[in-house]
Here is the input.
Amino acid sequence: MNGKGILSGLLITLRHFVDTYLEDLKVGRKRYGTAEGIEMRRSSDTRGIFTIQYPEEKLPVPEEFRFVPFLVYDVKEDGEKAVRCTSCGICAKVCPPQCIWIERSVDAATGKPIPTPAEFFIDVDVCMNCGMCAEFCPFDAIRMDHDYEMASYDRHKHHILNKERLLKPASYYAEIRPTSYRREEAEKAAKEAAKAAARPPAGTAA
Amino acid sequence: MSDLQTQTLVPQLDTIFPDWVRPDDRAGYQGYIVETEHLLAVAKALRDTYGYDLLSSVTGVDYLPEGKLEVVYHVFRTTGGPIFVYKVQVPRDNPVVPSLVPLYPGAELQEREAYDLLGIRFEGHPDLRRILTWEGFAGHPLRKDWHEPYFEEEAKPYKSRWPEGQVRRAEDLNPFADNVDYPAGFDPESLVPDADDTLYKTLFRVQQAQHPEIKTDAIVVNLGPQHPSTHGVFRMVALLEGEKILDLKPVMGYLHRNHEKIAERNTFLQNMPFTDRLDYIASMSNNFAYALAVEKLMGVQPPERAEYIRVIMAELTRIVSHFIAVGFLLNDLGAFFTPSLYGIKERELIVDIFEMVSGSRMMCNYFRFGGLARDMSPEAVQKTKELVNDRLPRKIDEFDRYLTENEIVRQRCEGVGVLTPEDAIALSATGPVLRASGVPYDVRRAEPYSIYDRFDFDVAYGLHGDIYDRYLVRMEEMRQSVRILKQALRDLPEGPIMTGKPAYQVRVPAGESYGRVEGPKGELGFYLVSNGKPNPWRYHVRAPTFINLTSLAPMSRGGKVADVVAILGSIDIVLGEVDR
Here is the structure.
């Protein structure tokens, strides 16, 4: 029969339409504006309304999510910041759009380089969020952030980040990427232990 | 078909044409070098006697130190088997090569590209004009001595970044001051664009007097570059008589960023995230093809688990791309956004998986040479299994019931934009466009790469070569992808995901390689030349949708204006890849 194909197709859109109401009635108010509701809507058996009402609701990002990079610092016992970066320059070298600028510290007295950055710039409008700086950093010093809301009116003031704005504490890193953080800390601890074991105990002369 | 055409034997060109052809014996190179004046004869023999019927890729390489330009041709048999490569070499100061368009009409756009970017003149080409850059562009950007206005150094990493890196804003380099060149005699201030007139003159004007008693005239109509039906900034110039298309020319390059020049400044690894930006709907398969090309040069093999994850990602990408293709084809037919949003909904669930494994929904940057950037977590595997085993087959069937028998879809698509198998091969069409024309050619079968020889799947193909068959082929390919995914997820082994240690500076031996995959839109190939340095000497993308556009005009001729929109939708172009 001519028109049967159109009608059976329209039945599918109709079912989608009816489903939105059935699903809302079934789940109730918690379907919108709650973390549980968002999880429900993005699961593999989602039915009904699928969209997330940004900015009232936000999709949680997975741990691996990468936006622009930041620099990690540890807090020493006396409360001082210990920047992990040694200004080795690997991130600046691997960066595909070359948006990282690093100025290495130099000892004023001897002229020798000190392994810490004097300045560190990232032009986040040039950054392509590829994550390779974080991937190849040997000191776990540069990591990818989760904060993607950084629109502003003035790119020169707000989008060229310097060292001060890039630095974030290791606790923040542990919070956004708990699995990676735990794995790296465990690796570090294992390395320290191996080093300690290899070192001959003090006082036992060969 | 003769024995010579079907046998898998690769012809020894240097013994067949001892005076015209010599093997390419440079270290790391394959194929043959043909004398320029005998190119047409050799190409004809390869096509007619030895069955290399599809010209896959035409590109050039600038060997500046030797003062030579080389044109590289990749051909293959649509009956399967490996790719065959031959080259011609011409002096840099007078690069003239006979055009292969009379033999392979599919060379048309590719030869124009080589002319535009490398300045190689193809004698006998019907319409040799610039294609990606404009007429006020000085020089040929892929020549090694050409420098861009923002030129800093020949190769990355730039020295100004470390150890005395002082931030410098890109805006401070004024692009319209003294760092821009124009061709001799070109004044941008007094520019009267005549390029359009030249373009209109190339349209094939035939006065077909349908009603001799009425005086009629053909008119030129521009569709695009800003047009909702062109899938991006793409322009079609159509010559119409009434509503009938007499001839059509695609105009592109509005999104041109000289991807290949950027890539030749980059190191091998730095190119990986740039490949994401080609066909941004299917970034995983771009990663795949590029990783294969570099791995061929390096001679590394990814571990088992990485191979399986690669296949899983590539097939998920195919489903994403086909959902978008089918959804937007319906948009072009006038079914505004309901079908495409149903497709986008499934895509959204799949890109969630990409985000979980790679960290980004579209710009995945997930493949590395010899493996992957990171492992696929058990949660991601679980989520993929849920989708593949339950939701996706159900939703593909629903899509099928929703659209396939729809009378309007059938009336608009059946018998429209027909491409015969002979034409499809001659025009170098690949992917769903070729298969819908009845040529069951799929790189995954014809020359299995990665671990595709382990999976049980069918190659979808059509019989009529019209829009409807292209739609059906895409629907069937989604089902086959689900089949592959089920097998890959079932067999996914544990183990490492990287061969060797991840290195930020990979060592790539000198030589050339061509890595190709069956991308969702066609054969996606990367032609690389390395000279042993950290940066590729030549990096060329065989972009499937760019080359499939060669067949847009032949498919549209004789049709109606409204059909052109649907035909373009059925080719499924992505401008990031067309313009590069």
Q: What stands out?
A: Residues 138 and 183 of chain B are 5 Å apart (CA to CA). DSSP finds 20 helices and 15 strands in chain B. Chain B touches chain A through 57 residues (CB under 8 Å). The first strand of chain B starts at residue 21 and ends at 23.
